[in-house]
Design goal:
- This protein is α+β, with helices and mostly antiparallel strands.
- It is built from 12 helices and 17 strands.
- Among the domains are: 6-41 and 49-141, no CATH class; 316-391.
- Strands 1, 2, 3, 4, 5 and 6 form a 6-stranded mixed sheet that branches. A 5-stranded antiparallel sheet has the order 12-11-10-9-13.
- The chain is elongated and about 80 Å long.
């Protein structure tokens, strides 16, 4: 008897993010595959036809699959949620099964207890007749119930603080900020490929951040799905696709949880002056995301071409041209609010160069900042066309 299997393994990149990878092992090295021959049997007896009532599915990945793959998706989803064993699948294509399995996990962050699956091939000679499927689980059902209780408590506390009249943009911003304030990046934490790391441990990596974002947004009645891809350098990464007022945007909560790298005398600033949230990755377009991220998703994703709900546009920090009056108004506003820093976002490279030349090259930034010692601490992000200044 020869065996092979599919396992979820993590990939850690220099950016410190972690995501899924599938690994197919040689038959003789794994015990997660079973091959049985129906040999002397003249034919594979078909079970009596059954009418199966399945729950409605609204997942994004599911909606992008063909009708045949949707049926396979529902078979796998139900097997995982009901802990069924040896479920006969409607497909005998192992690559297809792998892709659809990933689609199920992408749509369902609440299936946090699955770490892979095993399958059994039934052959007649060299002919593959059928494949049966069984999920592989990280926890037993008692442990799952206890972890779900803790997850529910976290979600209730988080969403309980959301403004009652919050629109979709406000909900996305609130959850983005909440997760960043309550999560520390830690590649060594357990369960970092699922929501347990965020909701129970308060520590995670990119896939944990992204699945937690998806889970909370879905709870708040905002569309969100998981996106898999890579970042500059080729490291695997995960983030989210969200929908606000009918338009799609990308959100990367992991990359939002990072301080700016300041130049000048920023090292002299007190620790509380260092920003903890980067808004460059809150509701961005495909064009902007492609500057630093590369899609490698299982199903096709829409073109995110709207900037209406982009953080900088909504908050008034977005420049379509260099405008001294707008800059003056922003700096005064942030001083009045007691902000520790302010970020200015440009529509394109041309505007970014104009801002950089005016504020730094011609040192006009001193017109807006209170700098009694004549020292300015700032950072600039050429990839995202933004500049940040400590106040």
């Amino acid at each position: 008897m020869k065996r092979i299997g599919f396992l979820l393994i993590g990939m850690i990149g220099v950016t410190g993010c972690l995501t899924y990878a599938w690994k197919t092992l040689p038959h003789q090295e794994s015990d997660l595959y079973i091959q049985e021959s129906i040999g002397a049997m003249q034919e594979d007896p078909e079970p009596a036809e059954q009418v199966i009532q399945r729950e409605k599915e609204e997942g994004y990945a599911y909606s992008k699959l063909s009708e045949e793959k949707q049926e396979l998706y529902l078979e796998i989803r139900d097997a995982l949620t009901h802990f069924e064993e040896d479920v006969r699948l409607s497909s005998c294509d192992k690559d297809e099964i792998s892709d659809v399995f990933q689609c199920v996990l992408n749509d369902h962050p609440e299936i946090f207890y699955v770490e892979g699956y095993t399958y059994t091939e039934y052959t007649l000679g060299d002919i593959l007749k059928k494949i049966t499927f069984t999920g592989s689980y990280r926890f037993d059902q008692e442990e799952i119930a206890e972890k779900q209780r803790l997850i529910d408590a976290y979600a209730d506390q988080c969403l309980g603080g959301m403004p009652a009249d919050a629109d979709e943009y406000t909900k996305v911003k609130y959850i983005y900020e909440y997760l960043i304030h309550h999560t520390e990046y830690d590649a060594a934490v357990g369960d970092n490929q699922n929501i347990c790391s965020v909701f129970i441990e308060g520590r995670s990596v990119c896939q944990g951040y992204a699945k937690a974002t998806q889970y909370l947004l879905n709870k708040a009645d905002v569309f969100a799905t998981l996106v898999l891809g890579r970042v500059v350098g080729g490291e695997g990464h995960a983030w989210n696709l969200v929908q606000i007022d009918g338009q799609y945007y990308y959100v990367d909560t992991t990359w939002g949880d990072a301080s700016y790298q300041a130049v000048g005398s920023a090292a002299e600033y007190a620790e509380e002056k260092i920003p903890t949230i980067n808004y460059d990755y809150l509701c961005v377009s495909t064009e902007q995301m492609n500057l630093t991220h590369t899609l490698d998703n299982v199903v096709e994703l829409p073109d995110c071409n709207s900037m209406d709900a982009n953080y900088y546009v909504r908050e008034g920090f977005y420049f379509t041209e260099w405008n001294e009056e707008q800059a003056d108004r922003i700096f005064q506003q942030e001083y009045e609010k007691g902000s520790a820093y302010v970020t200015l976002k440009c529509a394109n490279d041309t505007v970014y160069r104009q801002m950089q030349d005016a504020l730094i090259g011609r040192q006009e930034v001193f017109r807006y900042l209170n700098c009694p010692e004549g020292v300015v601490s700032y950072s600039d992000n050429e990839k995202q066309y933004s500049m940040s200044f400590w106040l």
